[in-house]
Specification:
37% of the residues lie in helices and 17% in strands. By secondary structure, it is of the alpha/beta class. It has a single domain, classed as Spore Coat Polysaccharide Biosynthesis Protein SpsA, Chain A (Alpha-Beta Complex). The protein has an 8-stranded mixed sheet, with helices on both faces. Strands 1-2 form a two-stranded antiparallel ribbon. Strand 4 and strand 5 form a beta hairpin. Helix 4 crosses helix 10, helix 5 packs antiparallel against helix 7 and helix 7 packs across helix 8.
Length: 387
């Protein structure tokens, strides 16, 4: 009634307009608030789960793919079949870069994350991933050592057999960690080369990896089955990022280390001159791809096949290994939409799959069955988790 009395007559039209606009604005704000509280979920970030979420297992019915019924593997994996028939055994060490960052937020109760019967703050989560990374290696390749390259200022609480902490001076900030990783690899290889030349070390091949991987088969076969490479990279059928830097192998001979080191030095040069804007993430992978593509005879169509191949690039014999076997990633990476190959060697828990990595190790320790564990990974890998 009040609104009618205010707005009676054309001569008061312009007096009514501010009232109408104000009322309309208030209604719009109220509707927006209701929509946000009731139906605005699409604007929120995707939910991350604090427990495993099982979905369908990709690759059902496809040959040479893992078949699962729940978390039970229905067919046999091909683990260790090559080495079982091989008389030549190669000595292999895993090398990774690790840095910790102090976080006051990590001490808040609401920042704790629980996996199984353990709770972790932010710093403890990183240490848990590092320990599970080493657990998988020592389970599958107990004869192999692990070398952790880290900031000299770090005091890592690691007291494990077959594990060495090697401080290397550098800049280990989050923004420069990927850049520092390549520099640390080069420094490590240079130190090993000097010892090898002086005959202070025996020949040991090296596999440089990210922390968030699980080795599920004996990787010595890379060096035994492919005796002519200096450096090995993993590739996928991805036009923009065909190479993944989370797995790099270097043959531990004098020539292998010399050529591998020179190759990485060239990658570092390209990185610092062309891709510093991506120094926090992806810069190393973009630099790797740039170096590989610079070879005038390189055939990019090979990346579409699931077969290892050799190529000479900047004086190094480079072995290209398919990510589908040596860097399989749920749900990213080549081959995952067709399931998990029976002869997968390495599972890479990129991004938000870190909880899945810890859950997988817990599952394995209770079941002692790698194939069943892979079914758990296959059925859980498309979900984002909170770890």
């Amino acid at each position: 009634m009040m609104a009618k009395r205010i707005c009676v007559g054309w001569n008061r039209l312009f007096l009514c307009l501010p009232v109408v606009i104000l009322v309309t604005h208030l209604i719009s704000v109220q509707e927006f608030q209701q929509e946000k509280s009731l139906g605005g979920e699409h604007k929120e970030k995707p939910k991350k789960f604090d427990h495993l979420v099982l979905g369908p297992a990709a690759g059902e019915g496809l040959p040479d793919r893992l078949q699962c019924q729940g978390t039970k593997a229905l067919n046999k994996t091909h683990f260790g079949t090559f080495l079982n028939n091989s008389h030549s055994v190669e000595n292999v060490a895993f090398v990774t870069v690790f840095a910790t960052y102090n976080s006051t937020a990590g001490n808040r109760p609401d920042d704790l994350v629980s996996v199984g019967n353990k709770s972790y703050n932010k710093v403890e989560r990183s240490m848990a991933i590092l320990n599970v990374f080493m657990n998988f290696i020592q389970e599958v390749m107990p004869q192999s050592s692990v070398i952790v390259l880290t900031d000299p200022a770090s005091d890592l609480p690691l007291r494990r057999e077959m594990v060495t902490i090697q401080p290397i001076q550098g800049e280990y900030s989050r923004e420069k960690l990927m850049l520092q990783r390549i520099r640390s690899y080069i420094s490590f290889l240079d130190a090993r080369l000097q010892k090898l030349i002086k005959k202070q070390e025996q020949v040991t091949h090296f596999i440089f990896t990210d922390l968030d991987i699980a080795v599920v088969d004996d990787l010595r076969q890379i060096f035994t089955k492919h005796p002519n490479f200096h450096l090995a990279l993993t590739f996928r059928n991805n036009k923009e990022q065909p190479l993944n830097s989370g797995f790099i192998a270097v043959r531990g001979t004098v020539e292998g280390i010399q050529r591998g080191k020179a190759f990485l030095e060239h990658v570092l040069k390209i990185y610092t001159t062309k891709f510093m804007k991506a120094s926090r993430m992806l810069g190393d992978q973009l630099a790797l791809a740039s170096v590989v593509r610079s070879n005038p005879n390189f055939n990019a169509r090979r990346f579409s096949r699931r077969e290892a191949f050799l190529d000479m690039i900047h004086g190094a014999s480079v072995l290209f290994l398919p990510c589908s076997l040596y860097n399989w990633t749920p749900p990213e990476g080549a081959g995952q939409f067709h399931g998990m190959p029976l002869d997968v060697k390495v599972v890479h828990f990129k991004g938000s799959r870190k909880r899945l990595m810890l859950e997988s190790w817990n599952f394995f320790t209770s079941s002692s069955n790698l194939a069943d564990m892979l079914c758990l990974i296959l059925r859980s890998g498309r979900t984002k988790y909170d770890f």
